[in-house]
Specification:
This protein has about 130 residues and is an all-alpha fold. The chain folds into two domains: about 70 residues, no CATH class; about 25 residues, no CATH class. About 45% of the residues lie in helices and about 0% in strands. α1 crosses α2. The termini are far apart.
Amino acid sequence: MEEANDKGRSQDFVKTSEADIKVTEVLEKIAKKLNQSITGVALAWVMQKVPHCYPIVGGRKISHLEENIKAVGIKLTDEDLKEIENAISFDIGFPMNTFGARPQNNFLLTSTAYMDYVDELKAIHFDD
């Protein structure tokens, strides 16, 4: 049972960025269209987009767990996937955003260590 003074993820603890807000707005729009929760749509995106990624779900209430379980049945369209992905631009991070996305083409990186990459993954479409 939650205590009355439990703030959860208050603004004092978590700073919301503009990117977070943009993605949340898109997830909320799709969630309303599908009559699902925002977290369910986000989990469905992860499960459809990345075949070898198994999201760790969590929550503080039984209702959170129930919403997460419903994500298994959500099927996002190609348009939904593109809308989520286009909400913000993707930053691949260091060292790829500094030296290039294909490490085998960079002498500096290949001379120091073996680096591998994964080809761009395509969304998974489940048969009905």
